[in-house]
Write a structure and sequence with these properties.
alpha/beta, five-stranded parallel sheet, 5 helices, 5 strands, about 15% strand
C-alpha cells in the first residue's frame, strides 16, 4: 500500500479507519471507480475493483468482501442483476450491498431494495462510512481499556 496523500478540506472522510474492511467496488466507469477506491484506500480499507458484473461475481467468491459498493447502470448485466446473483451465491449469509447511484427515481430505489441492496448517493455514503468507522474505532478502543 502506498503512503497516504495529504488530505484536503474537500475530503473530510479520507482519514485512516480504526476498523478496516475489505470492500468490493464495481463500476464500469474507470474514473468513478478510481475516485471511490482511492478514498477507501486512504481510509485504510482493502479495495478490490471490478469493471463488470461477471468479474465482480468471481472476485466476490474469491475474497468474500465485508461490503459491496456498485453502480446500477453497467453494460451487460446491471447492478440489480449482480445483486441477485450475489445473494444466491451466499445462502445463509448476508453481505451489505450498496448501490452508489445518483438516480433517485422511486422505481430505481424499489428495484435496488427488491434485489437485496440499498441505494445511496456516493458522497453521502462516504460521509456515513467515515462516521461509522470513527464510531466503531472509539467503541473498540473503549472495550480494550
Amino acid at each position: 500500500m502506498t503512503p497516504p496523500k495529504p488530505l484536503t478540506a474537500a475530503e473530510p472522510w479520507a482519514t485512516p479507519s480504526h476498523n478496516p474492511m475489505t470492500v468490493l467496488v464495481v463500476d464500469d466507469q474507470d474514473s468513478a471507480r478510481a475516485v471511490l477506491a482511492s478514498a477507501l484506500d486512504r481510509m485504510g480499507h482493502r479495495v478490490i475493483e471490478a469493471h463488470e458484473a461477471q468479474w465482480a461475481m468471481q472476485l466476490f467468491q474469491k475474497h468474500r468482501p465485508d461490503i459491496v459498493l456498485l453502480d446500477v447502470a453497467m453494460p451487460g448485466h446491471d447492478g440489480f442483476w449482480l445483486t441477485r446473483q450475489l445473494r444466491d451465491i451466499e445462502p445463509g449469509s448476508w453481505t451489505p450491498i450498496i448501490f452508489l447511484s445518483n438516480q433517485a427515481k422511486d422505481t430505481d430505489i424499489w428495484q435496488g431494495m427488491e434485489a437485496g441492496g440499498v441505494p445511496c448517493h456516493p458522497v453521502r455514503w462516504l460521509h456515513h462510512l467515515r462516521a461509522r468507522c470513527d464510531h466503531n474505532g472509539r467503541r473498540h478502543t473503549a472495550a480494550r481499556r
